[in-house]
Amino acid sequence: MDLTALLLSRLQFAFTISFHIIFPSFSIGVAAWLTVLEALYLATGRPAYRQVFEFWLKIFGVIFGLGVVTGIVMAFEFGTNWSELSRRTGDIQGVLISYETFTAFALEASFFGIVVFGRARVRPWFYLFSTAMVSLGTSLSAFWIMANNSWMQVPIGYAIENGTYVPTDWASIIFSPVLWVRFPHMLLASYLTGAFCVAATGAWYLLREEFTTEGQIMLRMGLYLAAILVPLQLFFGHLTGDYVHHYQPVKFAAIEGRWHDEQPASEVLIGLPDAASETNRYAISVPILGSLIGSLSFDSKEVGLTDFPPQDRPPVLIPFLSFRIMVGCGLALLALAWIGSYLSFRRRLECNRLLLWATFFSFPLPFIAILTGWFTAEVGRQPWTVYGLMRTSEAVTPFLTARAALISLLLFCSLYGFLFVFGTYYVHRLLRIGPVDRLVLPPVDAIPSRPMSVVGDPLAATPHRVPAQRG
User: Which spans in 260-398 are helix H?
Assistant: First the structure.
């Protein structure tokens, strides 16, 4: 095995998955937001809801496309860089990944066509149903990915036959208690990402004093939703920590920066882990709090990293710091959502420019929290690819060379960099244009039985525009 090829393969997969996760986490939240907007439009008939829906539908389309393009690559990487992992776990992981395509992607892609092109061709209730199906499809996609990753974190329902892992109990795999803690945690993170991006956009429009009606809808609904979801997210985050504490004690010790057994255990709020001396430099700790967090007890014994062989310990610095960044982002978002919701209830939100600026600049925080959460989970799992069964060094393609891994890494970095610049530029243009008042409708002669009529006559194909409306 080429150790350089292994390192480059790890960097490549870390880069591609970190880049990719930005887009589905955003699109899951926006898809749910679109469903709520369409339901409100049907219930109230208020044109502003329709304006905001059409505006965010364009952004969702761009993000959805970027998510598909950047996600396809990872499936190929299992074969090119991690063939041993695919060979030995393919009977389980291959099935779970294929379920995402056959159920989630097929569902969201099919109904997305209706959402984009079918408003004038289907009944309003079916259009709402189609929007909800797109949202369900994005959530199902996250479910199957989390099912696959959760099996790698805590493998259950399998047997070993001729060196490969085969499923023996699909119910245990799909209904794993670990999955049903981690999946809601990821889903809520995506909803919060959408909520704060929407709220930040609304704050931006109010600061610029344009699209005020639509901006108020975005700002208030985004903050109200976040005020409810952030406490739920913190609760499921605690449950996720419980599974790590129970199933992966060495990861939990790395996250806590706990080198030696402690009873009762203190909680290291911040510090700089030093693996060479097996201690934390510049540490600020709170006595007893570590036992309370780990076991809900004031005197429990918590294990340290020195209880495990050095070759079985994860790199401590990354999970230690990334976990604290994630928690810090969550607490900042909680404060912003609650203060903003209170001011909105008191009708003072739009006048508080300081909070509007804070809301506008908050949009990167959910993405940072998601990325650091993944860093905590994945780096903390090392040196295992399938926890306790297969080391990362055993999963890499045996004949992979460092040269091939380096070329593919540079290629992906260049391609993804271009996609990021293009996607950011295009979304920024859509944001600058804003939720314009003109709604583009198909020609009157474009009926479901004659879909090609929209391109038959150039004059007939000229879009009809609805006069400007304000909600």
Answer: 289-295, 317-345, 353-360, 364-381, 392-395
C-alpha closest to that of 376 among 237, 271, 262:
237
Rounded (10°) CA dihedral 8, 13, 16, 22: -130
- Whether 115 contacts 134, CB under 8 Å: yes
CA dihedral of 12, 15, 21, 26, whole degrees rounded to 10: -150
Task: Locate 22 and state its tokens.
Answer: 């930005």
pLDDT in tens, the chain (471 residues): 567 889 999 999 999 999 989 998 999 999 999 999 999 999 998 888 999 999 999 999 999 888 888 888 888 888 888 999 999 998 999 899 888 888 888 888 889 989 988 888 889 999 999 999 999 999 999 999 999 999 999 999 999 998 899 999 999 999 999 999 999 999 999 999 999 999 999 999 999 988 888 889 999 999 999 999 999 999 999 999 999 999 999 999 999 999 999 888 898 999 999 888 889 999 889 998 988 888 888 888 889 999 999 999 999 999 999 999 999 999 999 999 999 999 988 888 888 899 999 999 999 999 999 999 999 999 999 999 999 999 999 999 988 889 998 999 999 999 899 988 988 899 989 988 888 754 444 444 444 444 444 344 333 433 433 334 443
> pTM for this structure?
0.88
* Secondary structure E strands in 146-266: 158-161, 164-167
Contact 217, 49 (CB under 8 A): yes
Phi, psi of 130 (to 5 degrees): -65, -40
Pairing of strands 384-386, 390-391: antiparallel
Structure tokens at 181: 């803690």
Residues β-bridged to residue 164? 161
